[in-house]
Amino acid sequence: xxxxxxxxxxxxxxxxxxxxxxxxxxxxxxxxxxxxxxxxxxxxxxxxxxxxxxxxxxxxxxxxxxxxxxxxxxxxxxxxxxx
Length: 83
Fold this sequence. Notes:
two-stranded antiparallel sheet; Pemi-like Protein 1, Chain: D; alpha+beta; single chain; 83 residues
């Protein structure tokens, strides 16, 4: 068991976790956590999403079977884009 202290950071509060605790949980700095409270205990669970919000592999799995992709015409360049 590891003891951690809740610290005040600006208008928020934070909890520092040791590198060893993160490694044991398979987490790194920047990973998202789902935070819930159950029976008065704070429960931290790795979020099921990837940094940035979506997991490309999951999105691709949701495509209908046999769907074909086509190239979209976005029109001519407006600024200094190169097509």
